[in-house]
Amino acid sequence: MAARAGSNCLEQVGVMPSQIGMVVLASGSGERRFPGPACSVAHALGLTDVPALDLPMASAGALFGMSLASQLCDKYKNILVIAAEL
């Protein structure tokens, strides 16, 4: 679900995966704790050489992720923030 959401987001805004510098995934319902789902989602999107950060929290995780990304965008440029819950 998170990989599909990320792919749809990139498609809608016209950003190529190669333009993404970091992935932040907020989810309190990940399939496993280690490695977290951000790594799997990044890999599914073809983002193998970028940091992938998990925020293991529901609801507010999306807001926290966007806030964090805004602070890191000078270094990582385009940051893909995904929130996915079952």
- Looking at this structure, what is the CATH superfamily? Thiolase/Chalcone synthase
Q: Helical content, roughly?
A: 40-55%
Average pLDDT rating: 92
Assembly status: single chain
Q: Helical element count?
A: 3
The overall number of domains is: 1
Return the CATH topology.
Peroxisomal Thiolase, Chain A, domain 1
Distance separating the two termini: 9 Å
Arrangement of strands in the largest sheet? 2-1-3
What is the architecture at the second tier of CATH?
A: 3-Layer(aba) Sandwich
Shape: globular
Radius of gyration: 12 Å
Q: How would you characterize the overall build of this protein?
A:
The radius of gyration is 12 Å and the shape is globular. The protein has one domain: Thiolase/Chalcone synthase (Peroxisomal Thiolase, Chain A, domain 1), CATH 3.40.47. β1 (20-26), α2 (37-44) and β2 (52-55) form a beta-alpha-beta unit. It starts with a helix and ends with a strand. The protein is of the alpha/beta class. The protein has a 3-stranded parallel sheet with strand order 2-1-3, sandwiched between helices. Helix content is 43%, strand content 20%. The protein contains 3 helices and 3 strands; from the N terminus they run αβαβαβ. The chain has helices spanning 2-13, 37-44, 60-76, and strands at 20-26, 52-55, 78-83. The longest helix is centred in the last third of the chain and has 17 residues, at 60-76.
